[in-house]
Amino acid sequence: MTLTVQFLSMLSMAAMGVWLGAALDTYHRFIGKKHSFDIQTAVADFCFWTVQALLVFYILYQVNFGEVRIFVFIALMLGFAAYQAMFKHVYNKILTGIIFFFKKLFAFLVYVIKTLLFNPVKWLLHICRRFAMMIVLTLWSLIFYLLWKPLYFVLSLLGVVKVAKKGQPIFGKIKGFCDRLMKKK
Question: What is the rounded CA–CA span in Å between residue 175 and residue 80?
């Protein structure tokens, strides 16, 4: 390995140490630091560290064809320590701003979708309901005036309405109606 390749390896591993620090802070921000064991956290941790290890090895492979030496680990720790000392506070502020921005953007998109999609559909359904109620009331009025009023008129001519208005029990009303019909014959 030439001196240039060694220098590039150290520089890239120091940069990967900074990346690991930032990725770890981001991961903890979204997952949360848990002090108790559960299977979901264990699987998420395993996936996170597997992806990070593969990423570090990929960068190392691009720089020096994957030769792992002790200075690679020292450079990773140096980059991680540099991140913790110099960049962590600034990165966390930037991360907080980005998360805030995306929360507001998501809330805005939800508002726009609700305003442009759900409210018009809700309004159309309300109009359809009102229109259906208009049709039902119109049909009910037609049935009432075309069927019930003439039937009421015929029943009032036969005397059933007078009997019904007196408040007699229904069977007495029917019996009295039948008796009157028999007397008229």
Answer: 102
CA nearest 45: which of 57, 18, 27? 27
- Whose structure tokens read 């008129």? 153
Q: Determine, yes or no, domain membership for 133.
A: no
Ranges of residues in the chain with a pLDDT under 70 are 160-173, 184-185
Closest C-alpha among 49, 69, 66 to residue 58? 66
Return the pLDDT at 37.
81
| Domain assignment present for 45 | yes
Rounded to whole angstroms, how far apart are CA atoms 154 and 168? 20
d(CA 78, CA 9): 13
Please give the pLDDT value at position 107: 97
- CA torsion angle for 99, 104, 106, 109 (degrees, to 10)? -160
- Determine the pLDDT at residue 169: 64
SS3 98: helix
Q: What is the pLDDT of residue 176?
A: 75
Domain of 24 in residue numbering reads as: 3-94
Answer whether residue 178 is part of any domain: no
Q: Where are the alpha helices (DSSP H) in the chain?
A: 3-31, 39-64, 70-82, 88-113, 119-143, 149-158, 160-165, 170-184
DSSP per position, 142-169: HHIIIIIHHHHHHHHHHTHHHHHHTT--
